[in-house]
Amino acid sequence: MRSDLVLLPPVELRDEIEEKLFLIHESIRKKSELRFLCLDKMRSLESYVDIREGSINHKHCFRACIIIRGVGCSWYNSSGCYICSYSGKQFKRLKAIEYYEEYGKLLYDQFVRAFKKIDWSNIPILCLYNSGSIFDPKQIPVESFIKILKTIAKTPYIYEVRIESAARHVNNDYLEILNHYIGSQKKIVIGVGLESSNEWIRNKLVNKNLQVSEFEYASSLIKNHGMELCTYVLLKPPLISESDAIKDSVNSILYSFDQGSSTVSLEAMNIQSNTIAELLFKQGWYNPPWLWSIINVLKNVNSNCKKDQYISIGGLRIVPQPQAYSKNCNECTNVILKMMREYNMEHDYDTFMNKLPNCNCSNTWSKNLKLNKVASWEDWNQKLDSLLSLYRDI
Ligand code: SF4
Ligand SMILES: [Zn+2]
Q1: Residue 306 and residue 310: Cα distance in Å, rounded?
Q2: pLDDT beyond 90 at 320
Q3: pTM of the model as a whole
């Protein structure tokens, strides 16, 4: 069942709040000026490689993450999501388009170096990311993408390949290329960011630049090509209360499942550098969600999950290391985090809920939730004014 509507600002305040958020974000971007990527720099870049826990058919296994480093997300290059901390780590586009052939070669070489570092005999899952969209030819030229797929195809140990793309870059051509080169022998899962099914939260509070029609089109293409869709849903973007955040995540997860997602990754907000959330956190005006809130979202949606629809809990431990994570009290945080990691592998909802510790902090969480403690939208409007002046003075 859908939760109640989330409390949005009164219409007369919306334009003002939107504009202030935008100005603060632009100030952050200006201060952490993105560097242009030149070919010399590109030659020295290495992909990020990491072996993490994963699961196949609810059984523990390992997965290898390769994060290719090249030009960054196209959307961050022109504006970017307010929750994204890629400034400072991302590069702007190469200045000249003719560099792209050489860029593509260097990108492929970088991938091969990373790929060879991994002993695939015990790793059935490859997560291939680029801190942006794999399907954007400006980020990964198509020729390089095909060469990457051919390399993956030669490794029979890899059973599943996970990639990420913004919905707007998902198209028939790319999906056919994927199916042609690896579709017959490997399971393909495509991660797409939705963040919220609420238009105002998604495009004004998060600045996702995404219409639901784009998301729905992308999800139908992915399903029609026999691939799995993993949708990223955010828990607790800045400026909304803990209880509204829970409602919004519940609504967004149910919407994602309706659209055919096989998995929803519930991304609990954390505090990353160079984001509006960081500024609010430093003022004491914002905290990442409680772990109890994540659990509450699971409780609210579990009965609506059909067979073969799962929720994974994300955002708990990520790279780059955030300044603050979702947590409870010192007594139960680590216990619950460990349980969440197990839940992500086994998806055994009943065992997870039955084993949860009875910690007193759940009473504090529950009281806060009932009070729905958050600044009024008028207060937020003033707080954003003071953030703007503060940021200008730095
Ligand atoms: S689409 Fe992803 S990578 Fe791009 S700005 Fe948004 S969160 Fe960052
Ligand atoms: Zn506790």
Answers
A1: 8
A2: no
A3: 0.94
